[in-house]
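TA notes, week 10

Several of you asked for a full example with nothing omitted. So below is the full record: structure tokens for the whole chain, then the designed sequence directly under it. When grading your own attempts, check the secondary structure regions first.
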């Protein structure tokens, strides 16, 4: 049976962006644009690793930073993205295992109900 998982493009930073009107502030939102939007599992993993960040389309928004600080921490952000992907894979795998167990239990339980209803009608 072929796997339902598809190969996703590796998460990577494409560019950093800010609203030019914010540059005069001490800190401001910095958008880290990625190679693709985060999956639901990756977004959940990011929230666990870095609370306070938000996802907007194909970007992560650091709500209060400076462009220079985020740019200097490029390697750190790349490592965070790697951890996010790893964590997402773990969450997705755990969900798949739980789904398979639930389906197996339903199949076993459903078969029991079918045979029980046949017994109740006197059909053996």
């Amino acid at each position: 049976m072929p796997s339902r998982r598809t190969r996703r493009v590796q998460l990577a930073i494409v560019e950093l962006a800010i609203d030019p009107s914010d540059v005069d502030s001490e800190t401001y939102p910095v958008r880290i644009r990625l190679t693709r939007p985060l999956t639901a599992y990756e977004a959940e993993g990011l929230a666990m690793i870095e609370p306070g960040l938000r996802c907007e389309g194909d970007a992560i928004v650091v709500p209060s930073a400076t462009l220079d600080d985020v740019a200097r921490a490029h390697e750190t952000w790349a490592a965070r993205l790697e951890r996010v992907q790893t964590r997402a894979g773990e969450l997705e795998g755990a969900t798949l295992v739980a789904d398979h167990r639930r389906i197996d239990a339903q199949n076993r339980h459903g078969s029991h109900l079918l045979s029980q209803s046949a017994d109740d009608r006197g059909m053996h």
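The chain has one domain: 13-120. Use that as a sanity check on your answer.
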